Amino acid sequence: MFGPRKSIHTMSSQQEGHRLAKTLSWPHLIALGVGAIVGTGIYTLTGVGAERAGPAVILAFAIAGAVCACAALAYAEMATLIPAAGSAYTFSYTAMGEGIAWIVGWSLILEYSLACSTVAVGWSGYLVGWIQAAGVTLPQALLVGPHDGGIINLPAVLVALSVMGMLIAGTRESATLNIILVIIKLVALSVFVAFALPAFQADNLQPFMPYGFGSTEVMGEKRGVMAAAAIVFFAFYGFDAVATSAEEAKNPGRDLTIGIVGSMLVCTIIYMAVAVAAVGALPYTALANSPEPLALVLRSLQQPVAAHLIALAAVVALPSVILVMMYGQSRIFFVMARDGLLPRGLAKVSPRTGAPTLITLVTGVSVAAVAGFFRLDEIAELANAGTLVAFIAVGACLMILRRRFPELPRLFRCPAPYVVGTLAILGCIYLFISLPSSTITRFFLWNVIGLVIYFAYGRRHSDAREPVPVAGA
């Protein structure tokens, strides 16, 4: 019904010139996960979440984190069972068939490309704030897109193109640089908590849920804890980018498990501490929609030097998120092209670096274009829609393959797989319907375009549909 399925046993065998080099170990993978997870979500979307849920943004972070924890366990089992590039797309191809795999892969392209663009816009906000705090005035027309009266968000475009250049230089080199950037981010967030937590005031948490728990329309926008969870959810995902690196892991069974589960645990602890410190130190009305909420909190506490350093750390370290997300998207594009669903010429890797140069170039240019012209909150919400579909698919794949192939050795076994898989699916569906209706409409339009491409090109050129040669013929 959903097209041909790929065999688990043949997923890792690829032709020379279309095979990714094994260059990553578990420290690289934890850094990839933390590098993707800790970024725009906590540095910039804290303000957006506070506007939608008030102080209950803390609860929104907890709900989004719980849903992601279920998805992370499913990803860990699937990535070690099928250690091939492509994450949810590859898992869906094996468990459910080509048609579902295409929808998941097309949604992942939306997730990763828009996630890159979201972070680039968030990075631009911190850069402009940091420069202006130093007394330098820049032309507004080159700092924001047309939606805010400008021409183009030039800093966002430049950072996206710079990260593209780093990825073209090679995967291991990019991953090593990412470790350094992750350390800078973690130190900066620790400094923020150390300064903001002592200023905690219980009065700032009242009323705790000004817009209620569910997702309701207020002045044309969805407000409430679940509406906030649907956007701060962006702050948690990123561990799925670790799964896209499965083919490049030196020891997939050990390294992928540590990378996925480890990065989620580290980031959940960090996020709860930062959210409590931020909302407790400053009324949520002051935080609402600030492009640099953490620096704003420190400035309000008369800590201009710390605010300056936090903003500088964001400027230096947020590109690590762009790096990981752009890496993830290029690998999804790469695997879909290698399978014949997109032009196969895109699936060539560089003999020198073992990285897919052409597809990285295409990815970088498209990310830069979106970052230059669109709003941060709209980009993040649309990226979340793609991610939620991918997480739903992985939860389903976990349960399907447990039922279909229970005897296969699993280097990481998800506890209570049918419970975890069901919770991941139901949680993601609820977050999906909590997104703004305009976002859901755009997401379905994106997939309509994708299905047109699939039936016009991908279905006819798919490797899985080519006839298998008969021996001796």
Automatic annotation (TrEMBL):
<feature type="transmembrane region" description="Helical">
    <location>
        <begin position="177"/>
        <end position="200"/>
    </location>
</feature>
<dbReference type="GO" id="GO:0015171">
    <property type="term" value="F:amino acid transmembrane transporter activity"/>
</dbReference>
<dbReference type="InterPro" id="IPR002293">
    <property type="entry name" value="AA/rel_permease1"/>
</dbReference>
<feature type="transmembrane region" description="Helical">
    <location>
        <begin position="439"/>
        <end position="457"/>
    </location>
</feature>
<feature type="transmembrane region" description="Helical">
    <location>
        <begin position="112"/>
        <end position="131"/>
    </location>
</feature>
<feature type="transmembrane region" description="Helical">
    <location>
        <begin position="256"/>
        <end position="285"/>
    </location>
</feature>
<keyword id="KW-0812">Transmembrane</keyword>
<feature type="transmembrane region" description="Helical">
    <location>
        <begin position="414"/>
        <end position="433"/>
    </location>
</feature>
<feature type="transmembrane region" description="Helical">
    <location>
        <begin position="358"/>
        <end position="376"/>
    </location>
</feature>
<feature type="transmembrane region" description="Helical">
    <location>
        <begin position="151"/>
        <end position="170"/>
    </location>
</feature>
<keyword id="KW-0813">Transport</keyword>
<protein>
    <submittedName>
        <fullName>Amino acid permease</fullName>
    </submittedName>
</protein>
<feature type="transmembrane region" description="Helical">
    <location>
        <begin position="82"/>
        <end position="105"/>
    </location>
</feature>
<feature type="transmembrane region" description="Helical">
    <location>
        <begin position="57"/>
        <end position="76"/>
    </location>
</feature>
<feature type="transmembrane region" description="Helical">
    <location>
        <begin position="305"/>
        <end position="328"/>
    </location>
</feature>
<feature type="transmembrane region" description="Helical">
    <location>
        <begin position="26"/>
        <end position="45"/>
    </location>
</feature>
<keyword id="KW-1133">Transmembrane helix</keyword>
<dbReference type="Pfam" id="PF13520">
    <property type="entry name" value="AA_permease_2"/>
</dbReference>
<feature type="transmembrane region" description="Helical">
    <location>
        <begin position="225"/>
        <end position="244"/>
    </location>
</feature>
<keyword id="KW-0472">Membrane</keyword>
<dbReference type="GO" id="GO:0016020">
    <property type="term" value="C:membrane"/>
</dbReference>
<feature type="transmembrane region" description="Helical">
    <location>
        <begin position="382"/>
        <end position="402"/>
    </location>
</feature>
